Amino acid sequence: MQGQGLAVIILAAGQGKRMQSDLPKVLHPLAGRPLLVHVLDGVQALAPERILIVVGYQADRVRPVCAGYPVEFVEQTEQLGTGHAVMQAEAALQDFTGDVLILCGDMPLIRPETLRPLLLSHRASQAPCTLLSLKSNEKKDFGRVIRQADGSVGRIVENKDASPEEKTVDEYNSGVYCFEKSILFKALKGIGHRNAQQEYYLTDTVSRITEGGQAIQAIQTGDASEIFGINSIEDLNTAEQLFSERASNS
């Protein structure tokens, strides 16, 4: 039986070179507040036992922004990929039992109304991992969710590693996952970095788990705005527009 504790890991170690700024990506403002703060507000609504933020680039500038939030910091001294970033939290969670929700600090539009059903479905199914995916006919540079012949999730392939055929898949990975803790860190120990970016991908845990005979669950969303990650100033401008539209419709 899965534990009912919840820990959240927010990935916030990257520089965000495409932002063309020395400011860490997660500190760029949206509606006057850092991107990371929007994500923190969203996950706090889930009342997690623990919130861990993985910091790296200019960590000393990121930490003060989180003052007032009940967070812990773990440091990724080398940016070697999302899987490597999550590995840095293993020691801090050594005595924790339960589920681990992982998301990125540059996704400011993710809502508790989406995260909460993801967590509830994960627990009801007792899946080792439940991921949030996007079903869309619009072409995106996200990783693709590759399903097996029986319709179950088999693996995730990053856009840069995808074959032309895999790029025709219209189910995209959001970068939001809920894992049973012990399964997460066991799977992370089995991943490598033989890929286009020579990084340890968190997405590779999916194939590690399925190869072990366990079934991954995917919950689909049709709202691309929620999983919109900020990678450039153009993205930030788009997010401002989406944020304003959401505010006016609420």
Number of domain units:
1
- Low-pLDDT sequence parts: none
Q: How many helices does DSSP assign?
A: 7
Q: Which percent bin holds the helix content?
A: 25-40%
Please describe the biggest sheet, giving its number of strands, its sense, and whether it closes into a barrel. 7 strands, mixed
Q: Which structural class is indicated by helix and strand composition?
A: alpha/beta
What is the number of strand segments?
11
Tell me what portion of residues adopts beta-strand conformation. Answer: 15-25%
Question: What's the CATH class label?
Answer: Alpha Beta
**SSE succession:** EEEHEHEHEHEEEEHHEH
Mean pLDDT: 94
The CATH topology annotation reads as Spore Coat Polysaccharide Biosynthesis Protein SpsA, Chain A
Q: What characteristic shape results from the CA principal axes?
A: globular
Roughly how many Å is the radius of gyration? 17 Å
Strand order of the largest sheet: 5-4-1-6-10-7-11
Which CATH architecture?
Alpha-Beta Complex
Cα distance, first to last residue?
A: 38 Å
Could you give me the name of the CATH homologous superfamily? Answer: Spore Coat Polysaccharide Biosynthesis Protein SpsA, Chain A
Organism: Nitrospina watsonii
InterPro entries: GlmU-like, MobA-like_NTP_Trfase, Nucleotide-diphossugar_trans
Catalytic activity: alpha-D-glucosamine 1-phosphate + acetyl-CoA = N-acetyl-alpha-D-glucosamine 1-phosphate + CoA + H(+); N-acetyl-alpha-D-glucosamine 1-phosphate + UTP + H(+) = UDP-N-acetyl-alpha-D-glucosamine + diphosphate
GO molecular function: glucosamine-1-phosphate N-acetyltransferase activity; UDP-N-acetylglucosamine diphosphorylase activity
